[in-house]
Write a structure and sequence with these properties.
With about 250 residues, the chain is an alpha/beta fold. The protein has one domain (about 10-245): 3-Layer(aba) Sandwich (Rossmann fold), CATH 3.40.50. It is about 45% helix and about 15% strand. The chain is built from 9 helices and 7 strands. α2 (about 45-60) links the parallel β2 and β3 (about 60-65).
Length: about 250
């Protein structure tokens, strides 16, 4: 019987309080890893509350830590807290992302900037800071998206950011290979998370017609692919993007 054992490992999942991040944190903990769930401070404290609630739900191997991926100093402080809590860093999952959908004609500069800043520059900041802290043989898994390959209407900012994540992943896989650190991406289709459910129903129905398996993905199904890439089973896989979309593309 083949099992995945990440006992003694420490993982950071950005934006891990809900959706795909929460599912990923859960899978990593089931495999034995400690997991830091990051959040950024918002005015009403909702993000912190969600992250701490998820950490409590997942048990003593999880804890919530503030870390705004848009701010390099905040990211550095986040990793320092994680090191103080667990003493090592073995896995980084770049999951934090936002949506600001609008056609290019109507898109405001601020909507473009916000998505690029979080979904692309945020991944860069986390990877840059993590690179020198990761244990040899560590793992980075970046969350890409089918949108970075298909280019959905109204997602110029999101599609551009996620396509950029794929390119960044390829470069990092080469730069960190000397230390046997693998860098891969996972590109989900539409999963039934809070973000997925925010897509208008009419648009979702059209998407569903293009999925050979005839259904949207569950968060845990995306998390399974991430867990695989974080495991010893994926030691010789780096620089790749795994499509998890029910056969939509790939």
């Amino acid at each position: 019987m083949i099992s995945i054992d990440l006992s003694g490992k420490t993982a950071v999942v950005t934006g891990g309080g809900q959706g795909l991040g929460k599912a990923t944190a859960g899978r990593l903990i089931e495999a034995g890893s400690n997991v830091a769930i990051t959040y950024f401070r918002d005015p009403d404290g909702k993000n912190r509350s969600v992250a701490e609630s998820t950490a409590t739900e997942l048990g003593e191997q999880a804890f919530a830590v503030e870390g705004d991926v848009r701010n390099r100093d905040s990211v550095a402080k986040m990793f320092e807290v994680v090191s103080g809590q667990f003493g090592s860093l073995d896995i980084v999952v770049n999951n934090a992302a936002i949506l600001r959908d609008r056609s290019i004609k109507k898109m405001e500069d601020g909507e473009w900037d916000a998505v690029i800043e979080t979904n692309l520059s945020g991944v860069f900041h986390v990877c840059k800071e993590a690179a020198g802290r990761l244990s040899d043989g560590g793992r980075i898994v970046n969350m890409a998206s089918i949108s970075g390959f298909v280019g959905f209407f109204g997602q110029a900012n999101y599609s551009a950011a996620k396509a950029g994540v794929v390119g960044l992943t390829k470069v990092l896989s080469k730069e960190l290979a000397r230390r046997q650190i693998t860098v891969n991406a996972v590109a989900p289709g539409v999963a039934l998370t809070e973000m997925g459910k925010s897509i208008p129903e009419e648009a979702r129905l059209e998407m569903l017609k293009q999925i050979p398996l005839g259904r949207f993905g569950e968060p845990e199904e995306i998390a399974n692919a991430i867990l695989f890439l974080c495991s010893p089973l994926a030691d010789y896989i780096t620089g790749h993007t795994i499509h998890v979309n029910g056969g939509w593309i790939g």
